[in-house]
Design a protein that fits this description.
475 residues, alpha/beta, Alkaline Phosphatase, subunit A, 2 domains, 9-stranded mixed sheet, two-stranded antiparallel ribbon
Protein backbone atom coordinates (compact mmCIF):
# COMPACT_ATOMS: atom_id res chain seq x y z
CA UNK A 1 0.00 0.00 0.00
CA UNK A 2 1.25 3.48 -0.93
CA UNK A 3 2.58 5.40 1.98
CA UNK A 4 0.73 8.63 2.78
CA UNK A 5 2.74 11.80 2.97
CA UNK A 6 2.03 13.92 6.00
CA UNK A 7 1.63 17.68 5.59
CA UNK A 8 2.13 20.26 8.24
CA UNK A 9 0.12 23.47 8.03
CA UNK A 10 3.28 25.32 6.95
CA UNK A 11 3.96 22.80 4.17
CA UNK A 12 0.37 23.09 2.98
CA UNK A 13 0.64 26.85 2.75
CA UNK A 14 3.96 26.63 0.94
CA UNK A 15 2.87 24.04 -1.61
CA UNK A 16 -0.79 24.86 -2.07
CA UNK A 17 -1.86 25.40 -5.67
CA UNK A 18 -3.65 28.51 -4.47
CA UNK A 19 -0.29 30.13 -3.68
CA UNK A 20 -1.25 31.29 -0.20
CA UNK A 21 2.40 31.30 0.83
CA UNK A 22 3.27 33.57 -2.09
CA UNK A 23 0.33 35.84 -1.29
CA UNK A 24 1.48 36.17 2.30
CA UNK A 25 5.02 36.90 1.21
CA UNK A 26 3.78 39.52 -1.26
CA UNK A 27 1.76 41.19 1.46
CA UNK A 28 4.74 41.34 3.82
CA UNK A 29 6.98 42.68 1.07
CA UNK A 30 4.41 45.32 0.23
CA UNK A 31 4.20 46.42 3.85
CA UNK A 32 7.98 46.78 3.94
CA UNK A 33 8.02 48.66 0.63
CA UNK A 34 10.01 45.86 -1.04
CA UNK A 35 7.34 44.60 -3.37
CA UNK A 36 6.73 47.92 -5.06
CA UNK A 37 3.14 48.04 -3.85
CA UNK A 38 1.16 50.03 -1.35
CA UNK A 39 -0.79 48.67 1.63
CA UNK A 40 -4.23 47.27 0.93
CA UNK A 41 -5.67 50.03 3.12
CA UNK A 42 -4.60 53.33 1.50
CA UNK A 43 -2.52 55.72 3.56
CA UNK A 44 0.16 58.36 3.09
CA UNK A 45 2.94 56.79 5.12
CA UNK A 46 6.27 57.13 3.26
CA UNK A 47 7.15 54.12 1.12
CA UNK A 48 10.12 52.92 -0.89
CA UNK A 49 9.71 52.33 -4.61
CA UNK A 50 10.66 49.33 -6.67
CA UNK A 51 14.36 50.26 -6.74
CA UNK A 52 16.68 53.00 -5.39
CA UNK A 53 15.48 56.43 -6.47
CA UNK A 54 17.33 59.48 -7.80
CA UNK A 55 14.52 61.82 -6.74
CA UNK A 56 11.84 61.92 -4.09
CA UNK A 57 9.56 64.74 -5.24
CA UNK A 58 8.28 66.52 -8.36
CA UNK A 59 7.34 70.12 -9.14
CA UNK A 60 5.37 70.36 -12.38
CA UNK A 61 5.16 73.86 -13.84
CA UNK A 62 2.24 73.24 -16.19
CA UNK A 63 2.04 75.92 -18.87
CA UNK A 64 -1.62 75.71 -19.82
CA UNK A 65 -2.46 76.70 -23.38
CA UNK A 66 0.62 75.42 -25.23
CA UNK A 67 3.81 77.53 -25.35
CA UNK A 68 5.32 78.24 -28.77
CA UNK A 69 8.47 76.11 -28.83
CA UNK A 70 9.91 77.76 -31.96
CA UNK A 71 9.68 81.15 -30.24
CA UNK A 72 11.20 79.99 -26.94
CA UNK A 73 13.34 76.84 -26.87
CA UNK A 74 13.64 75.36 -30.39
CA UNK A 75 15.35 77.77 -32.82
CA UNK A 76 14.39 77.34 -36.46
CA UNK A 77 16.54 79.47 -38.78
CA UNK A 78 15.06 77.69 -41.83
CA UNK A 79 11.58 78.71 -40.73
CA UNK A 80 12.74 82.29 -40.46
CA UNK A 81 14.40 82.12 -43.90
CA UNK A 82 11.22 80.77 -45.50
CA UNK A 83 8.87 83.21 -43.74
CA UNK A 84 5.77 83.84 -45.86
CA UNK A 85 6.19 80.71 -47.99
CA UNK A 86 3.18 78.45 -48.60
CA UNK A 87 3.59 74.82 -47.51
CA UNK A 88 1.45 71.69 -47.25
CA UNK A 89 0.66 72.19 -43.54
CA UNK A 90 -2.81 72.98 -42.23
CA UNK A 91 -3.79 74.47 -38.93
CA UNK A 92 -5.09 72.00 -36.40
CA UNK A 93 -8.32 73.82 -35.59
CA UNK A 94 -9.35 75.75 -38.72
CA UNK A 95 -7.79 73.38 -41.25
CA UNK A 96 -6.83 76.11 -43.70
CA UNK A 97 -3.26 76.38 -44.90
CA UNK A 98 -1.53 79.68 -44.16
CA UNK A 99 2.04 80.77 -44.89
CA UNK A 100 5.04 79.98 -42.71
CA UNK A 101 5.73 82.46 -39.92
CA UNK A 102 9.29 82.73 -38.66
CA UNK A 103 9.96 83.85 -35.12
CA UNK A 104 10.76 87.53 -34.67
CA UNK A 105 12.63 86.79 -31.44
CA UNK A 106 16.39 86.33 -31.34
CA UNK A 107 18.04 83.13 -30.09
CA UNK A 108 21.55 82.89 -28.69
CA UNK A 109 23.74 80.23 -27.05
CA UNK A 110 23.53 80.15 -23.27
CA UNK A 111 25.75 78.77 -20.54
CA UNK A 112 28.72 76.47 -20.92
CA UNK A 113 26.58 74.00 -22.86
CA UNK A 114 25.79 76.61 -25.52
CA UNK A 115 22.13 75.60 -25.83
CA UNK A 116 20.19 78.25 -27.73
CA UNK A 117 17.26 79.89 -25.93
CA UNK A 118 15.09 82.83 -26.95
CA UNK A 119 15.55 86.37 -25.72
CA UNK A 120 12.07 86.02 -24.17
CA UNK A 121 13.35 83.63 -21.47
CA UNK A 122 16.69 85.12 -20.34
CA UNK A 123 16.39 83.76 -16.80
CA UNK A 124 15.65 80.19 -17.85
CA UNK A 125 18.40 80.61 -20.43
CA UNK A 126 20.72 81.51 -17.58
CA UNK A 127 20.00 78.11 -15.98
CA UNK A 128 20.40 76.13 -19.19
CA UNK A 129 23.30 74.10 -17.79
CA UNK A 130 20.86 72.68 -15.24
CA UNK A 131 18.22 71.89 -17.86
CA UNK A 132 17.51 68.80 -19.92
CA UNK A 133 15.81 70.20 -23.03
CA UNK A 134 13.60 67.60 -24.71
CA UNK A 135 12.76 69.04 -28.13
CA UNK A 136 11.03 65.95 -29.51
CA UNK A 137 7.85 65.64 -27.43
CA UNK A 138 4.69 64.58 -29.26
CA UNK A 139 1.16 63.20 -28.95
CA UNK A 140 -1.90 63.19 -31.21
CA UNK A 141 -4.59 65.35 -29.58
CA UNK A 142 -4.78 68.96 -30.85
CA UNK A 143 -7.47 70.04 -28.36
CA UNK A 144 -6.84 71.68 -24.99
CA UNK A 145 -8.83 69.22 -22.84
CA UNK A 146 -7.39 66.11 -24.50
CA UNK A 147 -3.87 67.53 -24.53
CA UNK A 148 -4.19 68.53 -20.89
CA UNK A 149 -5.42 65.09 -19.89
CA UNK A 150 -2.45 63.60 -21.79
CA UNK A 151 0.14 65.68 -19.96
CA UNK A 152 -1.52 65.20 -16.57
CA UNK A 153 -2.72 61.58 -16.75
CA UNK A 154 -0.95 60.10 -19.79
CA UNK A 155 -4.25 59.54 -21.59
CA UNK A 156 -6.52 61.83 -23.62
CA UNK A 157 -9.62 60.42 -21.89
CA UNK A 158 -10.82 62.36 -18.82
CA UNK A 159 -11.17 60.80 -15.40
CA UNK A 160 -7.99 58.76 -15.17
CA UNK A 161 -5.64 59.38 -12.20
CA UNK A 162 -3.16 62.17 -12.71
CA UNK A 163 0.60 61.78 -12.40
CA UNK A 164 0.57 63.43 -8.97
CA UNK A 165 -2.04 60.98 -7.69
CA UNK A 166 0.04 58.03 -8.93
CA UNK A 167 3.16 59.39 -7.23
CA UNK A 168 1.29 59.88 -3.94
CA UNK A 169 -0.18 56.38 -4.26
CA UNK A 170 3.21 54.83 -4.93
CA UNK A 171 5.36 56.71 -2.44
CA UNK A 172 3.09 58.22 0.20
CA UNK A 173 4.33 61.40 1.87
CA UNK A 174 7.21 62.39 4.11
CA UNK A 175 5.01 64.91 5.92
CA UNK A 176 1.82 63.65 7.54
CA UNK A 177 0.64 67.21 8.28
CA UNK A 178 0.47 68.28 4.63
CA UNK A 179 -1.07 66.68 1.53
CA UNK A 180 1.13 64.44 -0.59
CA UNK A 181 -0.13 66.09 -3.80
CA UNK A 182 -0.70 69.85 -3.98
CA UNK A 183 -2.02 72.14 -6.71
CA UNK A 184 -1.18 75.86 -6.76
CA UNK A 185 -3.15 78.12 -9.08
CA UNK A 186 -4.52 81.62 -9.31
CA UNK A 187 -8.02 81.45 -7.76
CA UNK A 188 -9.39 83.50 -10.65
CA UNK A 189 -8.92 80.75 -13.25
CA UNK A 190 -8.92 77.01 -13.77
CA UNK A 191 -7.62 76.17 -17.25
CA UNK A 192 -8.96 73.54 -19.69
CA UNK A 193 -9.46 70.19 -18.00
CA UNK A 194 -10.36 71.87 -14.71
CA UNK A 195 -10.04 69.68 -11.66
CA UNK A 196 -9.37 66.68 -13.92
CA UNK A 197 -5.78 67.92 -13.88
CA UNK A 198 -5.47 66.83 -10.25
CA UNK A 199 -8.01 64.02 -10.07
CA UNK A 200 -7.38 60.72 -8.32
CA UNK A 201 -9.64 58.98 -10.87
CA UNK A 202 -10.37 55.50 -9.55
CA UNK A 203 -7.52 55.62 -7.06
CA UNK A 204 -8.69 56.22 -3.47
CA UNK A 205 -9.62 59.85 -2.88
CA UNK A 206 -6.77 60.19 -0.40
CA UNK A 207 -4.44 60.65 -3.38
CA UNK A 208 -6.31 63.50 -5.08
CA UNK A 209 -4.53 66.84 -5.41
CA UNK A 210 -5.30 69.42 -2.73
CA UNK A 211 -5.55 73.06 -3.77
CA UNK A 212 -3.55 75.51 -1.67
CA UNK A 213 -3.46 79.29 -1.91
CA UNK A 214 -0.44 81.58 -1.71
CA UNK A 215 -2.37 84.41 -0.07
CA UNK A 216 -4.65 84.38 2.96
CA UNK A 217 -5.50 80.99 4.47
CA UNK A 218 -3.57 78.39 2.46
CA UNK A 219 -6.50 75.96 2.50
CA UNK A 220 -10.10 76.97 1.84
CA UNK A 221 -12.72 76.07 4.48
CA UNK A 222 -10.04 74.83 6.84
CA UNK A 223 -11.21 77.01 9.72
CA UNK A 224 -14.77 77.41 11.03
CA UNK A 225 -16.70 80.36 9.65
CA UNK A 226 -17.81 81.28 13.18
CA UNK A 227 -15.29 81.30 16.02
CA UNK A 228 -16.01 78.86 18.84
CA UNK A 229 -14.99 79.01 22.52
CA UNK A 230 -11.67 77.48 23.52
CA UNK A 231 -11.79 73.72 23.78
CA UNK A 232 -14.96 73.23 21.73
CA UNK A 233 -13.20 72.37 18.50
CA UNK A 234 -10.73 70.06 20.27
CA UNK A 235 -13.60 68.19 21.93
CA UNK A 236 -15.40 67.90 18.60
CA UNK A 237 -12.31 66.50 16.93
CA UNK A 238 -11.82 64.02 19.76
CA UNK A 239 -15.41 62.80 19.43
CA UNK A 240 -15.05 62.58 15.65
CA UNK A 241 -11.91 60.48 16.05
CA UNK A 242 -13.77 58.08 18.33
CA UNK A 243 -16.65 57.76 15.85
CA UNK A 244 -14.17 57.23 13.01
CA UNK A 245 -12.46 54.44 14.89
CA UNK A 246 -15.83 52.77 15.54
CA UNK A 247 -16.60 52.90 11.81
CA UNK A 248 -13.20 51.38 11.03
CA UNK A 249 -13.98 48.45 13.33
CA UNK A 250 -17.49 47.99 11.93
CA UNK A 251 -16.46 48.29 8.25
CA UNK A 252 -12.83 47.12 8.00
CA UNK A 253 -13.04 46.47 4.24
CA UNK A 254 -14.52 49.83 3.25
CA UNK A 255 -11.49 51.55 1.70
CA UNK A 256 -13.51 54.56 0.53
CA UNK A 257 -14.71 55.19 4.07
CA UNK A 258 -11.21 54.77 5.41
CA UNK A 259 -9.80 57.17 2.83
CA UNK A 260 -12.46 59.75 3.72
CA UNK A 261 -11.65 59.42 7.41
CA UNK A 262 -7.96 59.88 6.68
CA UNK A 263 -8.72 63.00 4.62
CA UNK A 264 -10.57 64.52 7.56
CA UNK A 265 -7.74 63.60 9.90
CA UNK A 266 -5.27 65.24 7.54
CA UNK A 267 -7.44 68.37 7.39
CA UNK A 268 -7.44 68.46 11.17
CA UNK A 269 -3.65 68.29 11.33
CA UNK A 270 -3.38 70.92 8.61
CA UNK A 271 -5.37 73.37 10.73
CA UNK A 272 -2.45 73.54 13.11
CA UNK A 273 0.45 73.04 10.69
CA UNK A 274 -0.38 74.53 7.29
CA UNK A 275 -0.42 78.23 8.19
CA UNK A 276 3.02 78.22 9.78
CA UNK A 277 4.55 75.74 7.31
CA UNK A 278 3.47 77.81 4.31
CA UNK A 279 3.99 81.33 5.64
CA UNK A 280 6.22 83.08 3.12
CA UNK A 281 6.84 86.15 5.29
CA UNK A 282 9.68 84.45 7.14
CA UNK A 283 11.66 84.03 3.92
CA UNK A 284 14.62 86.40 3.60
CA UNK A 285 14.35 89.53 1.51
CA UNK A 286 17.05 88.09 -0.74
CA UNK A 287 14.97 84.98 -1.41
CA UNK A 288 11.79 86.95 -2.00
CA UNK A 289 13.63 89.18 -4.46
CA UNK A 290 15.07 86.14 -6.24
CA UNK A 291 11.52 84.94 -7.01
CA UNK A 292 10.43 88.41 -8.12
CA UNK A 293 8.12 89.14 -5.21
CA UNK A 294 9.26 92.77 -5.43
CA UNK A 295 7.81 93.10 -8.96
CA UNK A 296 4.02 93.17 -9.54
CA UNK A 297 4.48 91.34 -12.85
CA UNK A 298 6.33 88.36 -11.37
CA UNK A 299 5.04 88.34 -7.78
CA UNK A 300 1.93 86.10 -8.23
CA UNK A 301 3.77 83.30 -10.05
CA UNK A 302 6.83 83.89 -7.89
CA UNK A 303 4.83 83.24 -4.71
CA UNK A 304 3.59 79.95 -6.15
CA UNK A 305 7.11 78.83 -7.09
CA UNK A 306 8.44 79.83 -3.68
CA UNK A 307 5.64 77.93 -1.94
CA UNK A 308 6.42 74.91 -4.12
CA UNK A 309 9.98 74.96 -2.85
CA UNK A 310 8.75 75.15 0.75
CA UNK A 311 6.38 72.24 0.16
CA UNK A 312 8.97 69.83 -1.25
CA UNK A 313 11.38 71.00 1.44
CA UNK A 314 8.79 69.79 3.95
CA UNK A 315 8.26 66.40 2.35
CA UNK A 316 5.38 66.93 -0.10
CA UNK A 317 5.74 64.51 -3.01
CA UNK A 318 4.15 66.33 -5.91
CA UNK A 319 3.38 70.01 -6.52
CA UNK A 320 1.62 71.17 -9.67
CA UNK A 321 1.61 74.88 -10.51
CA UNK A 322 -0.79 76.11 -13.18
CA UNK A 323 -0.07 78.98 -15.55
CA UNK A 324 -1.16 82.54 -14.64
CA UNK A 325 -4.45 84.00 -15.92
CA UNK A 326 -6.17 84.40 -18.31
CA UNK A 327 -7.71 81.07 -19.29
CA UNK A 328 -5.21 78.91 -21.23
CA UNK A 329 -2.79 81.82 -21.11
CA UNK A 330 -0.22 80.36 -23.56
CA UNK A 331 -2.91 79.86 -26.22
CA UNK A 332 -1.72 82.56 -28.63
CA UNK A 333 -3.96 82.27 -31.69
CA UNK A 334 -3.40 85.97 -32.36
CA UNK A 335 -1.09 88.86 -31.46
CA UNK A 336 1.61 86.41 -30.36
CA UNK A 337 4.42 88.94 -30.81
CA UNK A 338 2.94 91.13 -28.06
CA UNK A 339 1.19 88.61 -25.82
CA UNK A 340 4.01 86.06 -25.63
CA UNK A 341 6.58 88.52 -24.23
CA UNK A 342 4.10 89.71 -21.61
CA UNK A 343 3.48 86.18 -20.34
CA UNK A 344 7.15 85.22 -20.43
CA UNK A 345 7.83 88.26 -18.27
CA UNK A 346 5.52 86.81 -15.59
CA UNK A 347 6.81 83.24 -15.68
CA UNK A 348 10.47 83.25 -16.73
CA UNK A 349 12.09 84.77 -13.64
CA UNK A 350 10.16 82.75 -11.02
CA UNK A 351 10.70 79.49 -12.96
CA UNK A 352 14.44 80.10 -13.04
CA UNK A 353 14.48 81.19 -9.39
CA UNK A 354 12.87 77.91 -8.33
CA UNK A 355 15.66 75.89 -9.95
CA UNK A 356 18.36 78.18 -8.56
CA UNK A 357 16.90 78.15 -5.05
CA UNK A 358 16.51 74.37 -5.00
CA UNK A 359 20.11 74.01 -6.14
CA UNK A 360 21.44 76.41 -3.52
CA UNK A 361 19.66 74.46 -0.78
CA UNK A 362 20.83 71.06 -1.99
CA UNK A 363 17.28 70.08 -2.98
CA UNK A 364 17.60 69.98 -6.76
CA UNK A 365 19.27 66.57 -6.79
CA UNK A 366 16.22 65.06 -5.11
CA UNK A 367 13.55 67.19 -6.85
CA UNK A 368 12.38 66.90 -10.47
CA UNK A 369 11.27 70.20 -11.98
CA UNK A 370 9.17 69.70 -15.13
CA UNK A 371 8.26 72.76 -17.27
CA UNK A 372 5.83 71.83 -20.06
CA UNK A 373 2.53 72.68 -21.75
CA UNK A 374 -0.06 70.40 -23.31
CA UNK A 375 1.42 70.94 -26.81
CA UNK A 376 3.41 73.44 -28.90
CA UNK A 377 2.41 75.78 -31.73
CA UNK A 378 2.34 75.60 -35.52
CA UNK A 379 5.12 76.94 -37.79
CA UNK A 380 2.47 78.52 -40.03
CA UNK A 381 0.59 81.64 -39.06
CA UNK A 382 -3.01 81.83 -37.91
CA UNK A 383 -4.75 84.96 -39.08
CA UNK A 384 -1.36 86.47 -39.79
CA UNK A 385 -0.51 87.18 -36.13
CA UNK A 386 -0.87 83.95 -34.15
CA UNK A 387 -0.09 80.24 -34.10
CA UNK A 388 -2.46 77.28 -33.79
CA UNK A 389 -2.13 74.15 -31.63
CA UNK A 390 0.57 71.63 -32.53
CA UNK A 391 0.78 68.30 -30.65
CA UNK A 392 3.16 66.76 -33.24
CA UNK A 393 6.27 68.45 -31.85
CA UNK A 394 6.99 70.52 -28.75
CA UNK A 395 9.52 71.01 -25.95
CA UNK A 396 9.68 69.93 -22.31
CA UNK A 397 12.27 71.23 -19.83
CA UNK A 398 13.48 69.06 -16.96
CA UNK A 399 15.85 69.91 -14.13
CA UNK A 400 17.16 68.01 -11.13
CA UNK A 401 16.22 64.53 -10.01
CA UNK A 402 19.01 62.87 -11.98
CA UNK A 403 18.12 64.38 -15.35
CA UNK A 404 21.09 65.48 -17.46
CA UNK A 405 21.80 69.19 -17.22
CA UNK A 406 23.01 71.16 -20.24
CA UNK A 407 21.64 68.46 -22.51
CA UNK A 408 19.42 68.55 -25.61
CA UNK A 409 17.47 65.43 -26.55
CA UNK A 410 15.74 64.92 -29.87
CA UNK A 411 14.66 67.37 -32.54
CA UNK A 412 11.73 68.57 -34.60
CA UNK A 413 11.99 69.02 -38.35
CA UNK A 414 13.56 72.15 -39.85
CA UNK A 415 10.25 74.01 -39.50
CA UNK A 416 9.39 72.82 -35.99
CA UNK A 417 6.27 70.97 -37.11
CA UNK A 418 6.97 67.35 -36.17
CA UNK A 419 9.28 65.52 -33.78
CA UNK A 420 11.57 63.54 -36.09
CA UNK A 421 14.61 62.49 -34.08
CA UNK A 422 14.68 60.56 -30.76
CA UNK A 423 10.95 61.10 -30.36
CA UNK A 424 9.54 61.11 -26.83
CA UNK A 425 5.88 60.32 -26.26
CA UNK A 426 4.06 61.56 -23.19
CA UNK A 427 3.96 58.00 -21.75
CA UNK A 428 7.73 57.80 -22.32
CA UNK A 429 8.21 61.04 -20.38
CA UNK A 430 5.99 59.84 -17.52
CA UNK A 431 7.72 56.46 -17.42
CA UNK A 432 11.04 58.27 -17.06
CA UNK A 433 9.79 60.57 -14.30
CA UNK A 434 8.47 57.56 -12.36
CA UNK A 435 11.78 55.76 -12.93
CA UNK A 436 13.70 58.63 -11.35
CA UNK A 437 11.38 58.32 -8.34
CA UNK A 438 12.24 54.64 -8.02
CA UNK A 439 8.95 53.44 -9.52
CA UNK A 440 8.61 50.95 -12.37
CA UNK A 441 5.86 52.33 -14.61
CA UNK A 442 4.85 48.82 -15.69
CA UNK A 443 4.57 47.55 -12.11
CA UNK A 444 2.93 50.51 -10.39
CA UNK A 445 -0.68 49.39 -10.77
CA UNK A 446 -4.10 49.53 -9.17
CA UNK A 447 -6.97 47.06 -9.60
CA UNK A 448 -9.95 48.70 -11.26
CA UNK A 449 -12.96 46.57 -12.25
CA UNK A 450 -10.85 43.49 -12.76
CA UNK A 451 -8.04 45.26 -14.61
CA UNK A 452 -4.64 46.15 -13.15
CA UNK A 453 -4.44 49.73 -14.38
CA UNK A 454 -1.19 51.68 -14.77
CA UNK A 455 -0.33 55.29 -15.55
CA UNK A 456 1.47 54.64 -18.83
CA UNK A 457 -0.42 51.57 -20.13
CA UNK A 458 2.82 50.15 -21.61
CA UNK A 459 1.13 47.29 -23.47
CA UNK A 460 -0.85 49.81 -25.48
CA UNK A 461 1.54 52.76 -25.69
CA UNK A 462 4.81 50.77 -25.86
CA UNK A 463 6.17 53.37 -23.44
CA UNK A 464 9.69 53.08 -22.12
CA UNK A 465 12.18 54.90 -19.93
CA UNK A 466 14.30 57.31 -22.00
CA UNK A 467 17.75 56.41 -20.68
CA UNK A 468 19.58 59.08 -22.70
CA UNK A 469 18.15 61.95 -20.65
CA UNK A 470 19.07 60.68 -17.19
CA UNK A 471 22.40 60.40 -15.45
CA UNK A 472 23.82 56.95 -14.77
CA UNK A 473 23.21 56.27 -11.06
CA UNK A 474 26.33 56.28 -8.92
CA UNK A 475 27.06 52.82 -7.51
Amino acid sequence: MKKHTSFTRRTLLQQSAFGLGSCALGYLLARDGLGGAVPSTPDLTPRQGHFPASAKSVIMLFQNGGPSHMDLFDPKPELKRRHGESVAIKNAMQGNGEPLMGSKFAFQPRGESGIEFSELVPHLGGRVDDLCVVRSMFHEDPNHPGGTYMLCSCNRRPGRPSLGAWVAYGLGSENQNLPAFVCLRDPAVFHSGGSMQITNGWLPSLFRGTELRTEGDPVLNLRPAVETPDGVQQNSLKLLAQLNERHRRDYPDDTELDARIRNYELASRMQFAAASELDLSNETQQTQKLYGLDDPATAPYGRQCLMARRLVERGVRFVQILAPPPHNSWDHHGDINNRLPQLCRQVDRPSSALIEDLKQRGLLESTIVLWVGEFGRMPISQGGTGRDHNPHGFTALLAGGGFKGGHVHGATDELGYRAVHDRVSVPDLMATVLHQLGLDHARLSYPNRGVDETLTEPRITKSQVIRNIVETPRV
